[in-house]
Design brief:
Helix content: 25-40%
Mean pLDDT: 84
Low-confidence stretches: 1-10, 14-47
Structural class: alpha/beta
Number of domains: 2
Order of helices and strands: HHHHEHEEEHHEEHHHHHHHHEEEEHH
Shape: globular
Radius of gyration: 25 Å
CATH architecture of the largest domain: 3-Layer(bba) Sandwich
CATH class of the largest domain: Alpha Beta
Strand order of the largest sheet: 7-2-1-10-9-8
CATH topology of the largest domain: FAD/NAD(P)-binding domain
């Protein structure tokens, strides 16, 4: 390490919560009479967010790929609005033929691309994705705040370092060069605060191991209370009845429901109804759990998600079904979160498949360097990625499969020997109307988990 780096404190240990240190962006007379880099960056990106649907996505590569943007929504709705026949009819053949086309550039899609590349030689694979950046749910947002680069996950988040090589996931993790060990500074020693290594544990499942602050407004006054469960909620401004029901929901192991078809029964009601009707709990419990349920997985509150969804996450009221003690750790396995969530993991897979996709080879390079978009869809390489391409139709044509997609206001078609649909089922059903009925039925009955 250079002496200047040490002088800047680059070698100083920081907590995971700090994400990334500040960057030296300019000094002295070089900035006189010039617009600051931060201002230039803001001017450059802010013009892209005049649409309220898309909203502001930060800076960097993912700035224009913050979830389902307006363009992604409009292109996808062409299928919903019965524009498919006209799009297919007007499609221009590109003249390309691939051994495999994968529709969907998330973990499923790139997992399939990894397998295909690992088990075949001199074969071609194209991954089609309808977003400006690959990743599916595994994307991040980057923000420039007074010269600091801050990262946050858009969706997919949380991983575990493999303890063996028993699964395909373990194999992929090791092969693509992900670190097998991570070092963390001691946040308790540095700041007097116990912090988790991931984004979820402190929400509920391992809350007792960390320092968690709750913000209350009581009679117009704001108040922060730390570790509310330590004294059985005595310091909270809640009523005695609500405190009693909160303790029952979060700590009770009761299970008075002997249902043969537990999953189907739980799925017949919302989590809200389970808490308030089946358990008879105060609605305040539901209100408290709404953000936990939404952030933990589903994006919706207790009045939308079924009780079965809460069961799958072992949320309050479900401990008796799992024999889960919320005062202990849910698992001994270490779960971690990167600043940008599982974006880091997926970027390593893409880098492995297309070496020129991201400059550099170190963990930091692959995590933070810009994407080389010009390298993603180069003819001749074994794996290619075609972005901003919304699949419209997939059907058998003689001895091959034809794929029609919509890109930049035009429809194009390619052919392949095989196709993998690595995308949501509600979209796959619209693509595969000409497929065998067995495939359609399979897509419809796919479920998540089973009690």
């Amino acid at each position: 390490m250079k002496s200047l780096d040490k002088a800047l404190g680059i070698d100083t240990a920081i907590t995971r919560r700090d994400f990334v240190g500040s960057m030296l962006i300019g000094a002295g007379s070089a900035l006189l009479g010039c617009t600051s880099p931060a201002k230039q960056l803001l001017d450059k990106t802010s013009r892209q967010y005049d649409d309220p649907w898309t909203g502001f996505g930060g800076v960097g590569d993912y700035a224009t790929s913050n979830g389902n943007t307006r363009q992604v929504m409009l292109d996808s709705h062409k299928l919903r609005d019965q524009e498919k026949p006209a799009i297919v009819k007007s499609a221009s053949p590109t003249g390309e033929e691939f051994d495999l086309v994968i529709i969907g550039g998330g973990f499923s899609g790139f997992g399939a691309a990894y397998q295909f590349q690992a088990k075949s030689e001199n074969k071609s694979c194209l991954v089609i994705d309808n977003h400006p950046v690959f990743g599916g749910e595994a994307k991040e947002n980057e923000f420039n705040v007074n010269g600091y680069r801050l990262f946050g996950p858009q969706g997919s988040n949380g991983f575990a370092v493999p303890q063996s090589v028993n699964t395909l996931s373990d194999e992929v993790y090791r092969t693509i060069g992900m670190p097998m060990e991570y070092a963390f500074s001691d946040s308790k020693e540095d700041f007097g605060i116990r912090t988790p290594y991931d984004s979820y544990d402190a929400m509920y499942w391992g809350e007792n191991k960390f320092d968690v602050g709750y913000h209350f407004r009581d009679n117009g006054k704001s108040n922060w209370i730390k570790n509310i469960w330590k004294d059985d909620l005595k310091r909270t401004p809640w009523s005695d009845d609500l405190k009693k029901d909160m303790l029952r929901a979060f700590r009770s192991q009761e299970n008075s429901f002997s249902k043969k078809n537990l999953g189907a029964w739980l799925d017949s009601m919302t989590y809200k109804d389970f808490l308030e009707i089946e358990l008879g709990l105060d609605p305040g419990v539901t209100n408290h759990l709404d953000p936990i349920l939404a952030i933990a997985n589903y994006g919706f509150g207790c009045d939308v998600i079924s009780a079965y969804g809460a069961y799958l996450l072992a949320l309050p009221g479900m401990q008796g079904f799992h024999n889960f003690d919320p005062t202990s750790s849910l698992t001994d396995q270490k779960i971690y979160s990167f600043p940008g969530g599982n974006t880091t993991y997926l970027r390593h897979i893409v880098k492995y498949l297309i070496p020129d996709s991201i400059k550099g080879n170190s963990f930091e390079d692959i995590t933070y360097n810009k994407i080389n978009f010009s390298a993603l869809d180069k003819p001749g390489q074994s794996t290619r990625i075609r972005l901003n391409s919304t699949a419209v139709d997939v059907y058998e044509a003689n001895d091959h499969v034809k794929i029609v997609y919509y890109r930049n206001g035009k429809s194009e078609s390619i052919i392949a020997k095989s196709v993998v649909l690595a995308a949501p089922g509600f979209m796959a059903k619209m693509w595969s109307q000409k497929c065998h009925k067995t495939y359609i039925k399979t897509i419809i009955v796919f479920t998540m988990g089973q009690p």
